[in-house]
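question for whoever is on the cluster today: can someone run the full assembly for these? two chains, 888 residues total. i dont have access anymore since they changed the login thing
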Amino acid sequence: MAQPHVVILGGGFGGLTAARALAKAPVRVTLVDRRNHHLFQPLLYQVATAALNPSDIAYPIRAVLAKQANARVLLADARGIDPVRRVVTLDDGELAYDYLVVATGATHSYFGHDDWSTHAPGLKSIEDALEIRRRVFLAYEAAEREADPAAQAAWLRFVVVGAGPTGVELAGALGEIGLHTLAKDFRTIDPTRVEVLLVEGNPRVLGGFTPKLGTAAEASLGRRHVTVRCNTKVTAVDAGGVEVQLADGRRERIEARTVLWAAGVKASPLAASLGVPLDGAGRVKVEGDLSIPGHPEVFVVGDLAACAFDGKPVPGVCQGAIQGGRHAARMIRADLGSGKRAPFRYKDKGSLATIGRASAVAQIGARSHHGFFAWLLWWVIHIFYLIGFKNRFFVMLSWAWSWLTFQRGARLITGEVGALPAIHGIGADGARALPPAGETISPR
Amino acid sequence: MAQPHVVILGGGFGGLTAARALAKAPVRVTLVDRRNHHLFQPLLYQVATAALNPSDIAYPIRAVLAKQANARVLLADARGIDPVRRVVTLDDGELAYDYLVVATGATHSYFGHDDWSTHAPGLKSIEDALEIRRRVFLAYEAAEREADPAAQAAWLRFVVVGAGPTGVELAGALGEIGLHTLAKDFRTIDPTRVEVLLVEGNPRVLGGFTPKLGTAAEASLGRRHVTVRCNTKVTAVDAGGVEVQLADGRRERIEARTVLWAAGVKASPLAASLGVPLDGAGRVKVEGDLSIPGHPEVFVVGDLAACAFDGKPVPGVCQGAIQGGRHAARMIRADLGSGKRAPFRYKDKGSLATIGRASAVAQIGARSHHGFFAWLLWWVIHIFYLIGFKNRFFVMLSWAWSWLTFQRGARLITGEVGALPAIHGIGADGARALPPAGETISPR
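^ ran it for u. tokens below:
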């Protein structure tokens, strides 16, 4: 008799952990992902801000599972799940399962305004990160060409929406790019005049951390020329900036050519096809053992699962996905052996967010740290979790290099350059410009 | 009186060398490029074959010139030159010059069939390299899904057109990817069954090297499962393969889903706007001092210049561009001081091409080398010329890693995945497939 077939949807932390935890189980594993690589998402903002290369934080899923004889990898897009027939519908066929682990994660939510995504890209994939990198570095090029001071300021103003860990990390890095990385590269603009606005609807930054750490993070952001605007909700986004609503109801427009989105949570649309109750963000309300109601052979883990432990919701972080994936694998092994199902227990190993060079906040149990020690901790933990020795080693070196030199090695603008301001602006800022005579630049 | 304005078009080896050689001259320099980075083109094939990251071989032009007070960088697309009015037309304005150095290079020529470029991408930019990388690694994914043996073979067959250094290097790397890098990653296909065809219209590979080295390169390619087909001209290219004409006039079709182009030379279209005689490939026939006829203030250097030295044409390689850029700068300095113009003298420092792991060919003056020693030489020289310590250091480590482990770190598929074969093919190859029962995969 053939061994049971376990299909895992998603090669992120949850899916990959589940696959590896089944290495010695009497099952056949098929891991389905529409990308060929696992992505170390916590460091994605470092690619977006040119400190790391895509391949430093991404690794082929096939390579991770190459030595696991009972696993195979399928590059495919899962479109739906039929729990009654026990099949997954792919873009071009169907895949039958005995057990299913759904770990397709979540993305940012534009709160019903999906058209904002063109003007304010989010940060979930390598492509997103490269698009943000392209926009950030092109903004400086555009500012260098722009004659009108107000228009130039809009190019040097960066708005980050959402002050969770991703937003704080992005904003901190954007501040440092102007202050250190590009400080000497331009002639007509002064990159240190960069303005970074971190806009948050809630009353404070890093809502998941203690208020004390939030305050420390704000101070650290301030030193990087990041202006934090809490109690400020975004009501419109277009190519020229954002419109916000303040706590007192007043509206205000912020002119900024670069807007980045790091707010909200929207579950993968696959959840809806399971036909079980979802929460407001579209996540699956799972049973205590992470299976779905009525179908003990289907598990949902990671960001796609809405589950609570000890009366608190399990946060949508790597640790939650890793522990969930491991738990699902353990339940499958229990079913096939003589074990019994058990409820999922989440162990909070702490939260970390980095603000920039030698600055981070860390909350581990009741203790909280900020500053250099927290940064060191963040650094060691992230290196440790990166899959594959090569990545670990190269990321360490890249960071050591960035730290020593204030440089960011990967600041390439690839893809389409698109429209920049007409060049008649060059030389307008007399102080930094080269003497204009003899090089007449005239608009056509 | 303002200092003379030197405009340099192109931030490749020629343009960048010219800019740096003018650092201490009494001039103002504007370097114009439509990209923000200088590209170390000789190693571009390593990005295309996933051994290196884009930022390992590309460096922001601004950063290269950040400390040169008399130089500024302009991200712009030069559209034409008016040597009479002494202005460069940009995409959105004009730039006046006193001296002009045109170093915009050349690209591949599809011999009048530009529509082939969709099916057979060339290798000139980072985007090209990433597109080739995407196609190569997607081909393996497609083969893994394909049931029909002939269709599967077409996915595992790679055709490289043109057996100059770029073609030889690409073909060698493609052979090694199947033999070593991916050998263990797939379940239904055997990646070592990969076929690489290197198609060349001339009677032998590496026409610029001695026949002895050509033979050595062919033998080395054979050990990497590369089939060399000389005297074979490509007469048609489509999505499914190429049609070729053999020496005896017979035509033959080669079914291959991945075709890469490394043949021909076509000069940058900017050359035509100078209004001076061009050669067959569209290159500018320059004077002995690299200026253009009738305009001693305009120089053309690098791949865009057609010039001869010692009765032989100066080859379109880095050394030619670097020496040309330096010469143009020297002529400008001579004009402004009391020096005199002098003819350009090309010093051939030798030619190198690498075939793969521990194998290369080198021709230095009358001496020629092949095998491990030539490879070591190639390695040292390429590291040495990479701009910026960081790159040098990281490339060295990346290579050391690849060499020790047979791995290629950057094999990410980014961008659109597109259509792959329907998944009903999975499990067709019984020998390597997991047991098919219980995981019924059916086409819709």
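summary bc i know u wont read the tokens: Chain A is about 30% helix and 25% strand. The first strand of chain A starts at residue 5 and ends at 9.
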